[in-house]
Amino acid sequence: MNDSVFRMFELAQQGFSCAQVLMLMGLEAQGQTNPELVRAMNGLAGGLGFSGKTCGALVGGVCLLGLYAGRGKPGEKEHDRFESMVNELVEWFGEHMQGNFECAQILGDDLEHKQVSVKCGNIVAATYDKIQEILEANGIDPAGGRE
């Protein structure tokens, strides 16, 4: 088990959702903390507030790409390849999950019990790895910040 997977497991054991784990991993890679942002990511848990809709690993992954390549203040522009990075992640996720984008489809009964599932851990780890690959392919250092 590599260090990032072990860290993800620790965060999940602390009760953080898939989307929160991804954002925490990105913030930690940059040497940052942002409890407000992590708190906001909680709304993505369980497929948008435990509604079973779009998987938190996917929407959290898109948010993580935004942390690195999105627009965050007046006068700042998003990375010129931001939309293509998002599209690449969404396309990969669809292929990886055999067309299932909804948390309810992916987790079934585990969603109802709000359980941290091994399936979730595997999805989050694979999504995190794909995000790292996308960032590096677009010249973005995952350890670096936006500035």
What does this structure look like?
The protein is mostly helical and 147 residues long. It has one domain (3-137). 60% of the residues lie in helices and 0% in strands. It has eight helices and no strands. The chain is globular and about 45 Å long.
Helices and strands, with pairings:
Blueprint: H1 3-13, H2 18-29, H3 35-41, H4 56-69, H5 82-96, H6 103-107, H7 109-112, H8 118-137
Helix pairs in contact: 1-2, 2-3, 2-4, 2-8, 4-5, 4-8, 5-8
Care to give the gist of this entry?
This is C_GCAxxG_C_C family probable redox protein. The protein has 147 residues and is mainly alpha-helical.
Sequence of secondary-structure elements: HHHHHHHH
Q: If you compute it from the alpha carbons, what radius of gyration comes out, rounded to the nearest whole angstrom?
A: 14 Å
Overall 3D shape? globular
Task: Please summarize the sheet with the most strands.
Answer: none
User: What percent of the residues sit in helical stretches (DSSP H or I)?
Assistant: 55-70%
Total helix count?
Answer: 8
Count of structural domains: 1
Total beta-strand segments: 0
Instruction: Please indicate the percent range of residues in DSSP E strands (runs of 2 or more).
Output: under 5%
Low-confidence stretches: none
Q: Helix- and strand-based class?
A: mainly alpha
N- and C-termini, Cα separation: 32 Å
